[in-house]
Amino acid sequence: MAQQPLKRVLVTGGAGYIGSHIVLTLLLTRQYKVLSIDNHHNSFPTALKRASQIATEALPEDATAQDRDSAVVESFTGDLNSRADVEKVFASGPIWGVIHVAALKAVGESSEIPLDYYATNVGATIQLLQIMQEHGCYSMVYSSSATVYGTPPLVPIPETTPLKAESVYGRTKVMCETILADLCTAYPDRWRAISLRYFNPAGAHTSGLMGEDPRGKPGNLLPLLSQIAIGKYADSPLKVFGNDYPTRDGTCVRDYIHILDLARGHLLALEALSDERAPGSTISPDVFPKEGGKYKAYNLGKGHGQSVLSMIAAMHKASGFEYKYDIIGRRVGDVPDLTADPTLAQKELGFSAPLELEQMCEDLWRWQSMNPDGYGEQ
Amino acid sequence: MAQQPLKRVLVTGGAGYIGSHIVLTLLLTRQYKVLSIDNHHNSFPTALKRASQIATEALPEDATAQDRDSAVVESFTGDLNSRADVEKVFASGPIWGVIHVAALKAVGESSEIPLDYYATNVGATIQLLQIMQEHGCYSMVYSSSATVYGTPPLVPIPETTPLKAESVYGRTKVMCETILADLCTAYPDRWRAISLRYFNPAGAHTSGLMGEDPRGKPGNLLPLLSQIAIGKYADSPLKVFGNDYPTRDGTCVRDYIHILDLARGHLLALEALSDERAPGSTISPDVFPKEGGKYKAYNLGKGHGQSVLSMIAAMHKASGFEYKYDIIGRRVGDVPDLTADPTLAQKELGFSAPLELEQMCEDLWRWQSMNPDGYGEQ
Ligand SMILES: NC(=O)c1ccc[n+]([C@@H]2O[C@H](COP(=O)([O-])OP(=O)(O)OC[C@H]3O[C@@H](n4cnc5c(N)ncnc54)[C@H](O)[C@@H]3O)[C@@H](O)[C@H]2O)c1
Ligand SMILES: NC(=O)c1ccc[n+]([C@@H]2O[C@H](COP(=O)([O-])OP(=O)(O)OC[C@H]3O[C@@H](n4cnc5c(N)ncnc54)[C@H](O)[C@@H]3O)[C@@H](O)[C@H]2O)c1
Fold it and tell me: Where is the NAD-dependent epimerase/dehydratase domain (chains A, B) (predicted)?
């Protein structure tokens, strides 16, 4: 039986932490031809090579030429701020859909250099959508964030919560969601988009070959904990910002979700954007309304929160490292509890996030101890 | 006594209705060297020639070479979406400040082609700010709009009303205001910006040489009324959308402000952005806080609303034309009453809008009858 030709899907920021795990997840399905564009502002090309390597090794013995092709990502080094760089990708052949992951993502930095954030996160997104439209590519999965909720009035947080970001970074996400919603409303027969609001992606691929390797000192708790456990930052003690929040143990609570569960959410979103359904599809007909704009936003989280202290305990268990920490004052802008209400993605996409905290920490620690210097590149 | 060198000020969209009257107002002060960039998407180059002509004729007999230079606008034909076009303007010499007027502005159209609106109104603004920053130009007066208030909970509308635009066009204005506020907060010693939220600019320069000449059928009431009075659109009767609003006579109420009063508001805003004060300056030290971001938004309106029916009556009085109109159903998106609370601009900028409705209509009618085909260009 002849194989269906592969749908070409572009992952922007494909070499980054989340992007590279999405790329790998797509490669492993052998259903897509995956392209990536990344300027390696915060990532290394090796991530993409490892993804192709893992997917190629997973091929069955009787793999066809098309299967082999589907296991290798087509990688473009380019800047989304450059129209020419993006057009080069689209000139390589018709692209069916885009998973738009690339962005600047440091909350603190975003208030220091807001123009860079607005340019890369908003300006470049508008330009990408224009180029997609010029090439007849009308489907986007967008990497949004729980930060769009600001300080949510209701926890666990449902998608119906009014968006009210409290940082420049968060505002760039709200703006892009708004633009996508308006675009889908204007062209209900053409554009479709799904925003996925990530809670706290954590962990690494179980092979230990891929994981998070941010440039510079990690801004997020888990990668910081794992880098401390391999001996980095020994001279600057770990800081816990506030233990007087209205939470279980007084420290901030976040909803950690395994990066592989999160990545799988993108497969479901791609299927929801498509007119075709896989056999045994879990996509509900309610994803898009019959009339009106085909835009939807979903939380991707487990629906269970973990406090800072419980994360330290879990990473101690995984790595054996005895963490020392100082409890200091609250940090401006920290929200006490960001736990997702994941019901909508469960109901409409058939999404679930079964991987538990213990495995997130084990997988993270495997990656970190196998690759103490990350991808080992500059 | 030697003259101070002129501050170079760029007016984007300088050939448009509002832009050309701002340009003229600046030229007449002989205090600035005025530059314009416009792609003539919705305007004609003649507007700028007329502005230079009026200002040159107004020069005193003993005008210096610098005075003569200050009466002529330096005009660039270029697209704000093109980095190269904007950079060409900045390459012409140091620019002290930008009055950013250029935008797409049709509310209805904005929901049909949202990407064009987001690109021109938001993407190009981000790029303009980047180019300004690269050239050490840190002052902007931004053309915002009463539409940022959506359906306001309180009328007359104070600036403290939460922004909640109800159209794509309005959202582009809110986004740009947000970006400017974040930029000024990040660089309190560098960036300064003032957003001017226009209510309904109306009328024309008293010479009859300059006025509003939109391409296509006017979207706004007053220019439509004046074009009808000179005999256009005779076959399609004037439509009044709804007479059952909770207003004096049931038709929608807007706050019309003479275009020359509005333009003068930009002179005051430029002065407020500057460290220098003109003799007899009306700018209050309260415009910007001592600490924190130097960003402020002001309403520019008269603070008196006029209903659709009273505008028809006023234009009848000015033109003598007997308008026939059909009262039809409400139009989606129309807000009953948009009247400014102009107190803040009065108090902090010393702004006032003394020109009355009668004069707006007379000036408009003079322009229209002297130029039945506008600037007469294609
Ligand atoms: N990691 C989180 O906790 C988290 C949470 C919520 C949302 N997100 C969002 O998920 C996305 C991915 O986050 P991540 O954690 O993988 O970050 P990351 O920095 O690892 O990945 C982003 C990738 O985009 C690339 N990139 C940045 N600017 C670019 C440009 N101008 N052109 C081309 N490529 C560019 C970077 O080099 C990087 O590879 C981002 O949009 C982020 O805002 C992340
Ligand atoms: N007229 C109103 O009632 C009103 C009310 C509130 C706010 N505003 C705002 O005031 C500003 C001016 O409005 P106006 O009534 O004078 O409109 P206008 O269309 O007459 O002026 C806008 C000018 O910008 C130019 N322009 C558009 N896109 C451009 C681009 N990409 N590059 C270069 N130039 C470009 C147009 O050619 C035009 O000359 C706009 O920002 C508008 O949103 C207008």
Answer: 9-277
Which residue has the least CA distance to atom 10 on ligand 1? A143
Q: In sequence order, what DSSP letters do the residues of B176-219 get, joined into one string?
A: HHHHHHHHHHH-TTT-EEEEEEE-EEE---TTSS-----SSS-S
Please, are residues A122 and B122 in contact by the beta-carbon 8 Å criterion?
yes
A215-274: pLDDT as tens digits: 888 889 999 999 999 999 988 889 999 999 999 999 999 999 999 999 999 999 999 999
Task: List the alpha helices (DSSP H) in chain A.
Answer: 17-29, 46-57, 65-70, 83-90, 107-112, 114-117, 124-134, 168-186, 221-229, 259-273, 308-319, 343-349, 357-370
Active-site pick, B142, B169, B245, B298: B169
> Domain B7-370, what fold?
Rossmann fold (3.40.50)
B124 to chain A: closest CA residue: A123
- Which protein residue's CA is at the shortest distance from atom 34 of ligand 2? B38
B124 closest CA partner among A163, A46, A118, A207: A118
B117 in catalytic set: no
Best mutation site among A132, A174, A182 for testing chain B: the one with the most B CBs within 10 Å? A182
Order of strands across the sheet with B32-38? B74-77, B32-38, B7-12, B97-100, B139-145, B192-198, B294-300
User: Cβ separation of B111 and A186 shorter than 8 Å?
Assistant: yes
d(CA B292, CA A237): 32
Nearest Cα neighbor of A212 from A79, A11, A57, A42 is: A42
Which residue blocks in chain B are alpha helix, DSSP H?
Answer: 17-29, 46-57, 65-70, 83-90, 107-112, 114-117, 124-134, 168-186, 221-229, 259-273, 308-319, 343-349, 357-370
Q: Are B171 and A183 within 8 A, CB to CB?
A: no
Residue B186 to residue A114, Cβ atoms within 8 A: yes
State if residue B101 touches ligand 2 by the CB under 6 angstroms criterion: yes
Residues forming a β-bridge with A98: A10, A140
A126: nearest CB among B123, B130, B185: B123
Each residue of B35-80: pLDDT tens digit?
A: 999 999 999 999 999 999 999 999 999 999 999 999 999 999 999 9
- Cα B22 to middle of ligand 2, angstroms: 12
- pLDDT at residue A378 above 60? no
- Cβ atoms of A14 and A23 within 8 Å: the answer is yes
